[in-house]
Amino acid sequence: MGQTTYEWLQGGYFLLQYVDFDTAKGIEIVGYDEESASLKSHYFDQAGDILEYTYEIKDDAITISIDMLRYKGQFSGRFRDDGNTYTGRWEWTRDDVKMGYDATMTRVK
Predict the structure, then answer these.
(1) How many CA within 13 A on the CB side of residue 62?
(2) Were both Cys, which of 16, 25, 48, 55 would link to 39 (CB 3.0–4.6 Å)?
(3) Rounded Cα gap, residues 77 and 62, in angstroms
């Protein structure tokens, strides 16, 4: 179990995500990459890892992918009609070991 918190960096160009799970803690910075015309992010964790993700949002679907030397996988999810919740599943490998979990993200106002 855990919690993520989002906030816009002053200026509105980058979104910050603070991750606080039982076994994972870190910060992610998400922004638009003009060269690839996509949302990209860098995640920094408590173990010193730096992970790079690509986000794709289309209609009610969200996909977050990682394709690095030690890490490969993706999150696939869908937004509910109210736009306040999305559910999906993370599936990835780290050093060729398969991992994954189901996730529900709900906006708390």
Answers:
(1) 19
(2) 55
(3) 5
C-alpha 60: how far from its chain's center? 16
Q: CA–CA separation, 89 vs 100, rounded Å?
A: 7
Residue 62, amino acid:
I
Whether residue 55 contacts residue 37, with contact meaning beta carbons closer than 8 Å, is answered with no
Give the type of residue at 84.
Answer: N
Give the amino acid at 78: R
Question: What are residue 66's DSSP bridge partners?
Answer: 73
- Chain-centre distance for alpha carbon 28: 8
Mean pLDDT of 75-100: 93
The pLDDT value given to residue 1: 76
The angle formed by the CA atoms of residues 63, 88 and 78, to the nearest 5 degrees, is 65
Whole-structure pTM over 0.90, yes or no? no
The answer to whether residues 4 and 16 touch, using CB atoms and an 8 Å cutoff, is: no
